[in-house]
Amino acid sequence: xxxxxxxxxxxxxxxxxxxxxxxxxxxxxxxxxxKIYSSKAQYFKKHIPIYLLLYLISFCYLNGQEISxxxxxxxxxxxxxxxxxxxxxxxxISLPFVVGRYHMPVSNKNRHPYLNNNWFKGYIYFKGKxxxxxxxxxxxxxxxxxxxxxxxxxxxxxxxxxxxxxxxFEILGKTYRYYNNLKKINKExxxxxxxxxxxxxxxxxxxxxxxxxxxxxxxPFYNYKLNTDMYLIKNDVTIHIKKMKDLKNxxxxxxxxxxxxxxxxxxxxxxxxxxxxxxxxNYYECLLKNxxxxxxxxxxxxxxxxxxxxxxxx
Length: 314
What we know:
Blueprint (H helix, E strand, L loop, with lengths): L1 H11 L9 E6 L4 E6 L10 E2 H13 L6 H19 L3 E2 L6 E4 L17 E7 L2 E11 L4 E7 L5 E6 L4 E6 L2 E6 L13 E8 L3 E12 L6 E13 L2 E5 L2 H6 L5 H11 L10 H17 L2 E3 L13 E3 L1
Antiparallel strand pairs: 1-2, 2-3, 4-5, 5-9, 6-7, 6-10, 7-8, 8-9, 10-11, 11-12, 12-13, 13-14, 14-15, 16-17
């Protein structure tokens, strides 16, 4: 069995003593293929159907010997882990922040897993420092920041950057920060990943967008469905916000002022339009700050500008 594993590993993970090869598993609708690239990213081998390769060898081997169910299961689990390792094969490029794995781009302009299918200039936070970077796009389905790397030979490669190195990035005028281990409320799970930071103070308002593949009857292949969730972080607890009422319920300390402010400014809140959230939260925090400073609001114009200097000492 050990000899078979070693033989299969040699077939699965090809190495060359001169060039370092990046083995990347590429997902397709009905198959998993392997492409092998050299360090100069020169394509040198045709697609190898990994499922056919592995299962053909497995069939010949397993049916030629009497092996218990548990050993067969261990064998298949071992190959599954090999495939997973192949997917997670990492490479480090000359640019210090480019640490990640190969990303197979989707070129369809209308059906794609990205926030926007164009490449944009943006900013990344790498080891605590902000850097300007060209050619970025955000893959919402994989929750990965994609970097288009070009070489001196004019070859181009898409790299899915590792979130352990890119804690935050800015693209299209929006800031995305990686959160993990967010505290939950009412046993509701909050996924680890990049969140759009809409409001960033003692209170935080976050947007989490995901894309999932769905079948489209008007299209021979699958399409992508966009999902958007809103979250408020208050007292280190993450609260799922679905509508304006949910947000107001979390600001009950200043409920009267909040209701008047929302009505006065005709504010609305939804997953498609959440620009009012930072206005409401900023107003709420200003009310708390005024109260802490032992002041009171005497001017109605505060409803238009929550931090206006319209408070006086009691």
